[in-house]
Amino acid sequence: MGDSDGSAPSDTMRGRVRGSRWKFWLLMDANRWIVAGLLLSFVFLSLVGGSLLDLSPMRRVVSSFNGLWWLFSPGINAIVTGVTLVVTINQLVLSQELGPLGDQRERMQGAIDFREDVESWLETETSPPDPASFLAALVDGVQTHADQLEGAIEGNDDEELRNRVRDYADSLTKNAREVGDELSDAQFGTFDVITSALDFNYSWKIYEARRLRREHADSLDEETEEALDEVLDVLEFFGPAREHFKTLYFQWELVNLSRVMLYASVPALVVAMVMMLYVTPSAVTGSTLGFDHLVLLVSAAATATLAPFMLLLSYILRIATVAKRTLAMGPFILRETARSDDIDWES
Question: Mean pLDDT, to the nearest integer, of 210-218?
Answer without folding.
Answer: 84
